[in-house]
Specification:
It holds the Pfam family GerPC. This protein is an all-alpha fold and 204 residues long. It has a domain of 114 residues. Helices cover 65% and strands 0% of the residues. It contains six helices and no strands. The protein is elongated and about 95 Å long.
Length: 204
């Protein structure tokens, strides 16, 4: 059976060309994957020892608004759902439980800070920036922040790895310190940014 007709030869040549292009494409992709694998071997992990945030983008126009702390988004629930959905499928129930306990411990420490230390901090910063607030506005600011701290804690739980041999309570205290710092900076920036017409005057 002869198979040397032009049509057969043309189809065979076209098929060989397609296979050659496919092989070339696969070789390029393998080279990229190999480079990424080598990079991962050379840099197995990233450890964050210091995290800094800029608060110059906070804009406060009304005391009824939301006082955002750190990188908190407009709708924290959406980010929380996104972070949960992005967890690798291999994460075990034990790790989730440990993270939950760490979140709870850190939340308790930050709640205590908001209840016991933040009112005094507010008064000190009000004096520094000549921005007197009444008790209602102080309460509003603290409760506004309280609604946002879970997303901040979750951020630090995810990005700040514990030191070797550190106790869970010590790690929770470290995470709480990061959140406390965010709270203090956000409040300070807020009071610095209050327009003169919004500043109270207890002597009036």
């Amino acid at each position: 059976m002869k198979q040397n007709n032009p049509s057969y030869s043309q189809n065979w040549y076209s098929y060989v060309q397609q296979q050659a292009a496919l092989i070339e494409n696969l070789e390029r992709r393998m080279a990229v994957l190999q480079a990424e694998l080598n990079n991962l071997k050379e840099n197995p992990g990233t450890r964050i020892d210091r995290i800094e945030y800029k608060f110059d983008q906070l804009k406060i126009e009304r005391l009824e608004g939301t006082l955002n702390i750190g990188l908190n988004p407009t709708d924290p629930d959406q980010v929380e759902n996104f972070e949960i959905s992005q967890q690798p499928p291999g994460i075990g129930m034990l790790q989730q439980e440990l993270d939950g306990q760490l979140m709870q411990q850190t939340r308790q420490l930050v709640d205590a800070y908001l209840n016991e230390e933040t009112p005094r901090l507010l008064e000190q910063l009000e004096d520094r920036y000549d921005s007197k607030l009444d008790d209602t506005n102080r309460h509003h600011i603290i409760e506004d922040i309280r609604k946002q701290i879970d997303s901040r804690i979750r951020y630090y739980v995810k990005h700040v790895q514990p030191d070797e041999n550190i106790q869970p309570r010590e790690h929770a205290e470290r995470l709480a310190d990061y959140v406390k710092r965010d709270i203090a900076r956000a409040i300070e920036h807020f009071l610095k940014s209050i327009p003169d017409e919004m500043k109270g005057n207890e002597n009036e």
